[in-house]
Amino acid sequence: MSFFRWKPRLYPIVAILASVFILIFGIVCARMPGFPYFLAGLLVWLTLFGCGRACLRVLPAALIVGGIFSSLAYVSSGRDAASALAMANRFGALFLALVPGMSVEPVAMTRSLSALHTPRAVTLGMLIVMSFLPVLRAEIGRVREAMKTRGAGSPLRPRIFYRAFLIPLVTRLVDISDTLALSIETRGFTLGKAKYTVYKKEWIRISDILFAAGLAAGAVLVVLW
């Protein structure tokens, strides 16, 4: 019955494959006339399937970076609007390709990879990478707050950046890596062949099928435009 239950949360493998597809399709088909409509529809489609918060996070960066590079393409191509639009389309696809992966929880990714009997080295690597990025962002914020509290000054100055920002950050990351290694060993993770079970499995739902079908339909419409 869980297959027919609507949950606006993508199955991890579907999300990763969707990210790869959006990126490749954006690079190949950026010059097609209907591609801007594909990006607009993709933004709405991702929002409907539980990725609205991730879309809001990448949208400002996509507009700024895409605007800068499309302006450079416009100038360097002799004021060719088509080249500028194609560059904007590529960066739009690049940032929207990040959205499905950003919406996946590290635990859900680990469960799905384990259920598919993926090699433990791959599963463990994905878990560490997906868990480490939020930790890194939080630690950078803590170090910056500590610098403000102590009145260390601007981190743009090389001496202040090295002594007040870089050294505390590296020290904290080394401590976190030691804690992470101990936590993995305590929880029984091993890279060798060992029997294991998945306590709570992730299942493909009808929402995942609808998401993939809508994504494919949008791509076909762009090609046939």
Detailed description of the structure:
The structure is a single chain. By secondary structure, the protein is an all-alpha fold. 75% of the residues lie in helices and 0% in strands. 21% of the residues are buried. The model is unreliable at 1-6 (pLDDT under 50).
Approximately what portion of the residues adopt beta-strand conformation? under 5%
The count of β-strands is 0
Structural class: mainly alpha
Structurally, how many domains make up the residues? 2
User: How much helical structure, as a percent, in the residues?
Assistant: over 70%
Distance between the termini: 39 Å
Radius of gyration: 21 Å
Shape: flat
Averaged pLDDT, please?
81
Order of helices and strands: HHHHHHH
The residue ranges in which pLDDT falls below 50 over 5 or more consecutive positions are 1-6
- Describe the sheet with the most strands: none
- Number of helical stretches of at least 4 residues: 7
Entry summary:
Helix content is 75%, strand content 0%. The chain is mostly helical and 225 residues long.
Descriptive keywords:
mainly alpha, 225 residues, 2 domains, single chain
Write the layout of secondary structure elements.
Blueprint: H1 12-28, H2 35-76, H3 81-102, H4 106-115, H5 120-150, H6 158-186, H7 206-223
